[in-house]
Amino acid sequence: MSDESMGTPDLRKPATGPAHRPGDPTPVTDPPRGPVRGCLHAIGEFLLELVGEVLLGVLATASLAAAFLLAELAYRLSPALSYALGAVGVLVVVLGVRQLRRPRERRGRRGRVLAAATAGLGVWLLLCVFYASLSDALDLASVF
Asked: Is 57 within 8 Å of 131 (Cβ atoms)?
């Protein structure tokens, strides 16, 4: 008598049908790994997360420090110059947002540059805010 006639599948034979059929409620799992491969996989995920966190932190901190340093140098050179640069920056962002809201076909060269500058600034600000909030969230998680 074979094992299949008793209701238990024979694990020595490869499966003939698909492992997971559409609509089947059983979860799809990864193939089993040995302890060495599982450990290496966990170490790889940890290193990838660590490098990503360090890189994100260095980029956010360095870019914010450079922005504040440039603002301070401009203010020491001439307060009126620093206020004018701030106003120009706000104007670029406003015009860039206006260009981002227009259809792509109607944007000229200047509009595309303004839209790209605004999008780059937005991504940079999101990076800085994300890093600051992630750092705070991880600090709160270590308290509990």
From this structure: yes
Angstrom distance (rounded) from CA 30 to CA 33: 8
pTM beyond cutoff 0.70: no
Torsion, Cα 141 63 122 48, to 10 degrees, reads: -50
Closest CA to 127 of 32, 68, 42, 60: 60
The answer to whether the beta carbons of residues 74 and 83 sit under 8 Å apart is no
What is the residue-level pLDDT of the chain in tens, covering all 144 positions? Answer: 554 455 555 555 555 555 667 777 776 666 666 777 778 788 888 888 877 777 777 877 787 788 888 888 888 998 888 888 888 888 888 888 888 888 878 878 888 888 888 888 888 877 777 777 766 666 666 655
